[in-house]
Amino acid sequence: MLRDIPATPAVRVAFGALVIAFGTTAWTLVRATRMEALPEVAPASFATAEALAVRGASAPTDIRAAVETDPFQENRTGPSVRYRMPGETDQAKAAPTPERELPVVLGTALAPDGTSFAMCQMPGGRAGVVHVGDKVGEYTVKSIERGHVVFTAGNGKQLDIPALR
pLDDT by residue (tens digit) across 41-50? Predict the structure, then answer.
């Protein structure tokens, strides 16, 4: 029966591919059916039985009261004192906030075509190249001049910071 199959190279390649396909299928089936041992793990435990207890239903929401107070009225204002969670300290009574850190100008480079740049960094941050209009921390670069950079803070205040020497 096999002698009736012509022994051309194409038939030999096809037969070889068939043998490889059968071998791959057998190998895959063996790997798919073999089960590896699972590692030993400790049984699950809960701190208390309350973790498994069913919680009671919460109080119903009073929708009518919310609609009657209309939180979206135009004349409505916020409370005079900010709401704080229990245990949260009052920031107004807490220690005064430290002054904002200013950017450090490492150097400037001027170009006649307006492509001037400066090397700046925030204290403890990475140095980088900035151009007019770029941000360094919360400050925006307004102008770059020889030996100093003018920044604009978020509140509109301008800062003229000289380069390090």
Answer: 888 776 676 7
